[in-house]
Specification:
The protein is of the alpha/beta class and 372 residues long. The chain has 14 helices and eight strands. Strands 1, 2, 3, 4, 5, 6, 7 and 8 form an eight-stranded mixed sheet that branches. Strand 7 and strand 8 form a beta hairpin. The relative contact order is 0.12.
Length: 372
């Protein structure tokens, strides 16, 4: 911030924004929102001062936001003498929806704004969430200026970077709703993005090691060369799909990642959570499969000469033959990798799903409230 901007802030009314976020993608989004809000001048002339706080944001058992617990946590986490007019901005990974419409943001009372990260889908999440947060704060300040009784007033001005999103009122709170068209699909995509499936790869190191060892047979045994050369693209595709599906199921079922009726009552929410889990684990396995394919392909090109490969498959070897060889070897290795996945880091695997992260946040919140 420049010296001129700092002097302007000193001469203006300061508005403090305390930003609390769930760990993970929501935390990263919160940091970018904080950078965007800090030093921003509202239309009223108020200059914002944004700061982040480290607090869990647990949902209730139904998966909905637990506003009461959030308020208690934020109250115990604030310093004595802190600005009573401070705005709290919660950046949550809870997939909040009203019917089939994702909720992007929610204004709670006169001092809290909640941003729901999964509702923004999978693209430009931080940029759009920052724009919505700024608009919500502007709306809250304008409402405070225009009303004396603090009753909810839905903003009637356009919201930047949200397309056809519209403000509405639900349970006495102003909420910003995304369009209903493909709303649940967009939310599931956002849940998958929030899960960050690529972070599963380190947890699958045991599976990758077992898969690599098995795939080495494809490099050193000519029978696999001949088999790969004789297989059609369709057959190779079927083998790879089956291999990836097997290890995906192997990871989901023994680790208890599948949401059941006893854990989540609402059928729609249960289906969304399970779709996000399935796609997250499937994408993580695909990352592993792609890495295995590249390693086996490179090893084949280095170890097996074109002349020797030609002699074994009874025709002149080309790039397509090396690709087929790596393709089949990677698929066979992936099946064997399921055995290695039994020794994978279970905590990292569980951490890639919404249900288990919710349970962890509830435990952390109870512990903090009990301690404080």
């Amino acid at each position: 911030m420049s010296t001129a901007e700092a002097e302007a802030m000193e001469q203006s009314d300061l508005g403090t924004v305390r930003i609390a976020a769930d760990q993970g993608l929501a935390d990263a989004v919160a940091d970018k929102i904080c950078a965007r809000l800090d030093g921003h001048r509202l239309s009223s002339g108020t200059v914002l001062h944004a700061e982040t706080v480290s607090l869990p944001l647990p949902p209730v058992e139904s998966g909905r936001p637990d506003m009461e617990t959030w308020s208690s946590l934020l109250a115990t986490g604030s310093e004595e003498g802190e600005n009573a007019d401070a705005i709290t901005l919660c950046v949550s990974e809870i997939p909040r929806r009203v019917g089939s419409r994702p909720v992007l943001a929610e204004i709670v009372g006169t001092s809290m704004v909640v941003i729901y990260v999964p509702s923004f889908g999978a693209r430009a999440v931080a940029r759009r969430a920052g724009a919505v947060a700024l608009t919500a704060i502007e709306s809250m300040r304008r409402r405070d200026d225009d009303t004396d009784d603090g009753s909810p007033v839905a903003p009637d001005h356009p919201t930047p970077a949200t397309g056809l999103a519209q403000w509405s009122v639900d349970s006495g709170h102003d909420i910003l709703l995304a369009p209903a068209l493909l709303g649940r699909t967009r939310m599931v995509a956002g849940m998958i993005r929030t899960n960050r499936p690529w972070r599963l790869v380190p947890a699958l190191s045991g599976a990758l090691a077992a898969a690599t060892a098995t795939s080495a047979f494809g490099v050193f045994y000519s029978s696999i060369w001949q088999m790969a050369a004789s297989m059609s693209v369709m057959r190779l595709t079927c083998v790879s799909v089956i291999a990836v599906a097997l290890i995906t199921a192997w990871l989901i079922l023994p680790n208890g990642l599948w949401e059941r009726r006893t854990r989540r009552q609402t059928g729609v929410d249960r289906a969304m959570y399970n779709m996000a889990t399935l796609a997250t684990v499937f994408a993580g396995v695909l990352f592993m499969y792609a890495a295995l394919f590249v390693v086996v392909g490179a090893a084949s090109a280095v170890v097996i000469s074109p002349e020797f490969l030609s002699a074994q498959i009874d025709h002149e070897a080309g790039a397509a033959d090396y690709i087929r060889l790596a393709w089949l070897a990677a698929s066979l290795g992936t099946v064997a990798g399921a055995v290695g996945s039994t020794v994978a880091d279970q905590e990292q695997i569980l951490g890639a799903t919404f249900g288990h992260r919710e349970a962890a946040r509830r435990r952390a919140a109870k512990s903090r409230l009990g301690t404080d």
